[in-house]
Design a protein that fits this description.
2 copies of one chain form a homodimer.
Chain A: E1 4-14, H1 22-27, E2 32-37, H2 41-44, H3 47-54, E3 59-63, H4 72-85, E4 89-94, H5 96-108, H6 116-120, E5 133-137, E6 149-154, E7 159-164, E8 172-175, H7 185-203, H8 211-233, H9 238-251, H10 265-276, H11 281-300, H12 302-313, H13 319-336, H14 353-361, H15 373-381
Helix pairs in contact in A: 4-5, 7-8, 7-9, 7-11, 8-9, 8-12, 10-11, 11-12, 11-13, 11-15, 12-13, 14-15
C-alpha cells in the first residue's frame, strides 16, 4: 500500500426523503441560489418542481441547457450570468454533465481569464473565490456528486479534458434513488458501465497488498453485477436503484483509489473518441475496456486480472486462464446490459484509427505504465 | 436500505510519511497546541520526540496520563489545564482511549458545568465553542481517529457511557502503521478483535438489500482474517499493520453503518463488564460476541448469520448449519489470536452475573431489537 490522504468533506444525503433537507442545508450557506440543469428532463419528471418548492424562500436564478459532455462554450454563458447574479451557492440539479459543468462555473466565475484555463492547467489556475456547490443528483454514473473532478469538452478544438480539486467538492449532495426511476434503459445501463469502469481503473493496478481497497472495489463490482440486470428489468426497484446509486458514489469518491496505483488509460482513450464523436462516454468505455484488458491487462497486470476473475466472477484455473475468462465475462456483462460492443456499430469507420492515435499520443501520458503509440493503435484497432 | 446521511470531514493522512504533514496541518488551525497522551509509551518508542520535533514552532502544553478506559476523574484535570491554556487545537497522540478522552476535553473545556453532563446527555449538553481536535494514532482499534464518538468511564459510580457528535470529529488524523510495530502482541490482537466486533455490530442487521454496506463489511472482515494472524507473527510487517489500520478506521467511520439497522448490544453488554472490572474492552468483546451470536444471532438474524458464514468463512449448507459453523469459526478466530474466551479466565466469578444483569437492564435499550432481561442473563451466564 502506498501513502495517501483521504479527505472528502461532502455531506452525502441519501434516500427517499433526502430532498427534504434541501432548504435547511442551503440556508446554512446563503440566500442567493444559482440553479443549473441540463436539457430539461427535470421539468418533465417533476424534479424541477420539487426542487423549486424547497427554494421558495430563496433568491433563485437558473441556467438550463448544460449538454451531455458539457462544453466550455455553453458554460461561458453560465459564468457570465453568475458574474452578474453573484450567488451564494450553485445548486446543480442533474447528472454528471450538469455537475461537472457547474464545477467549472464554481471555479471560474471569479477567475480573470477564460474558463478553459482552469481545465488546461488542471485546476492550477483557478479563482481565489470559489462559489460553494451543492447537487441534487438525477443520474448515478460519474460520482461527480462526491468528488472534485470535472470533465469538460472544448468543441471548437475537439478537446476533452478535466480538472480536479477538493475546492469544488459539493458541500452537500442529495441522492434520492427514486429520482432515477424514469431514466431510459440505455442511460441506466451506461450508469452501471461507467461505474464498473471507474472501479476497474483503480482496481487493476500493480500495487501489492492494498487489501482493503481491493475488497471494497470487488464488493462494488459484485453489487453492480447483482443489481445491474435487475434495474433494466425493474426500473422502479428501489433496492436496485439505491445500491447502484450508492455504489456509483463510492466508486469515485477517492476511497478505493487511496494508496494504490491507478490506470485511467481506458478513460483517456475514450475521451479522445468522444471528443470527436458525440457518443455517450460509457458507451465508449464499454467498447474499449475489454480491448484494454486484452492488450494491457493480460501482460502488465496478469496477477490482478486473475484475482479479479476469481473474486468477482468466481472463476478457477491458472492465472492466464482465469484472466482470459474474466475478459469474456466482462464483455458479456456489458453486452447483457444492451450496449454496442464495437465502434463500427456506432457508425464510426476503422479508417479513423490513425486520427484517434494521433490525438491520443499528443495528450498527457496514459496509464499506470504509460501506453506507447503501438499499444494505443492495437487497442483502438481492436474496437471495430 | 434505509435513508441516511454520511458526512465525515476528517482529513485522513495515512502512511510511512504521514507525520511529515503535522506541522503544516496544525499551522492551518493555530499556534497553541495542547498535546494529550496516555501512560507514556510514546516516550519509550520515540513517537513523542517525533511529534515534538514537528511542533518546535508552536506554543505547546501537554497533559499525559489518560488511562485505558479513560476516566472522567482524570479528564476533569485536563479540562482545568485547557481552560487556563486556551489552546487553538488539541493534539491527541495515542490510541482510542487518549483520543476519546481528548474529545471530552474538546467538548467540555468551555462547558459551564461538569464534564460528565456531556456523556450523560449523549452530547446534547455541550460547549458552544468546541476546541478543534487532531490525532496522531498509535493503536488501531476503536476508529476514534475518524469519528465523533467517545466512550468515558465514571469510576466512582462504575458507569461507562458514550457521546457522539461530528463536532468532535478530528480535523485531521495522522496514521503511520509503522508506529504500531512495537505494540505488545495482546494489544495487536485486541485491535483486530475490536475492529471485527465493530463490523459485526453494524453488519448482523435485519435491513434488506444494503448490498454495498454488506460487501464493504465482508471485505473488511476478510482483510482482518487475512492479516490478523500475520501481524502476531510478524509485528513489523508493514502490509499487515497498514491493512489492519486502514480496516480499523473504515470499520467505524460511519460508512458501513450507513442506511442499516445497527445492533451494538455486544458492546453495551461489554461496557457493563468493564465498568466493574478493569479488563480490556476487546477482551470482553471476544468473550461476549460468540454468546450473543448463539442467543440472538441464530434466532433474530439467522439469514444474515448464514450470509456471514458463506461469504466471510466460505461455508456451505443450510442456513442453520452455516450460521452455527460461523459462530465456531468466529470463536476459533478470536482464540487463535491468543485471547481468553471466558470471563472465568479473567478471574471473574459467575456469581457476578446477577450484578451485571442488574446494571444492564438499567441502561438504555440494547440491540436492534432490544434485549430483555432473560436474554441478557442467558448471554452473560454463558460467558463463564
Amino acid at each position: 500500500m502506498e501513502d495517501f490522504s483521504f479527505y472528502n468533506p461532502t455531506n452525502y444525503i441519501f434516500g427517499k426523503n433526502a430532498l427534504d433537507s434541501l432548504a435547511s442545508e442551503t440556508a446554512k450557506i446563503g440566500k442567493k441560489v444559482f440553479v443549473t440543469y441540463g436539457g430539461g428532463s427535470i421539468k418533465k419528471n417533476g424534479i424541477y418542481d420539487k426542487v423549486m418548492q424547497q427554494l421558495t424562500d430563496f433568491d433563485v436564478q437558473e441556467f438550463g441547457g448544460i449538454e451531455p459532455n458539457p462544453r466550455v462554450e455553453t458554460l461561458r454563458k453560465a459564468i457570465a450570468q453568475a458574474k452578474e447574479f453573484q450567488p451564494d451557492i450553485i445548486l446543480a440539479v442533474g447528472g454528471g454533465s450538469t455537475i461537472d459543468g457547474s464545477k467549472l462555473i464554481a471555479a471560474a466565475t471569479y477567475y480573470d481569464g477564460d474558463a478553459w484555463d482552469v481545465i488546461a492547467t488542471k485546476g492550477e489556475k483557478i479563482a481565489a473565490k470559489i462559489i460553494p456547490l451543492a447537487t441534487v443528483l438525477t443520474i448515478s454514473a460519474t460520482a461527480s456528486e462526491v468528488n472534485g473532478g470535472s470533465v469538460i469538452t472544448k468543441w471548437e478544438t475537439n478537446e476533452k479534458d478535466y480538472f480536479s480539486t477538493v475546492k469544488v467538492n459539493p458541500v452537500f449532495s442529495i441522492v434520492n434513488p427514486e429520482f432515477q426511476y424514469s431514466l431510459p434503459v440505455d442511460q441506466s445501463a451506461y450508469g452501471v458501465i461507467d461505474t464498473f469502469s471507474h472501479i476497474l481503473e483503480q482496481y487493476i493496478n500493480q500495487t501489492e497488498h492494498a487489501t482493503v481497497q481491493d475488497r471494497f472495489a470487488e464488493g462494488l463490482m459484485l453489487t453492480l453485477i447483482e443489481w445491474g440486470p435487475v434495474v433494466l428489468k425493474e426500473p422502479t426497484s428501489y433496492s436496485a436503484r439505491a445500491n447502484i446509486a450508492f455504489a456509483a458514489s463510492m466508486a469515485l469518491n477517492n476511497l478505493i483509489g487511496s494508496g494504490v496505483g491507478q490506470d485511467w488509460a481506458t478513460h483517456e482513450l475514450e475521451h479522445v473518441v468522444s471528443g470527436f464523436y458525440d457518443i455517450p462516454h460509457a458507451a465508449g468505455l464499454a467498447v474499449i475496456t475489454p480491448r484494454w484488458m486484452k492488450h494491457i491487462g493480460l501482460t502488465q497486470k496478469l496477477a490482478k486480472m486473475a484475482q479479479y476473475g476469481r473474486r468477482v466472477w468466481g472463476l478457477s484455473g491458472t492465472n492466464e486462464e482465469v484472466a482470459q475468462q474474466a475478459i469474456n465475462k466482462t464483455s458479456e456483462f456489458f453486452e447483457s446490459l444492451g450496449v454496442k460492443m464495437t465502434f463500427s456499430e456506432w457508425g464510426i469507420s476503422s479508417t479513423e484509427v490513425a486520427k484517434l492515435v494521433e490525438k491520443a499520443v499528443n495528450r498527457d501520458p496514459m496509464g499506470e505504465i504509460p501506453l506507447n503509440e503501438e499499444q494505443m493503435r492495437a487497442i483502438y484497432s481492436d474496437c471495430f
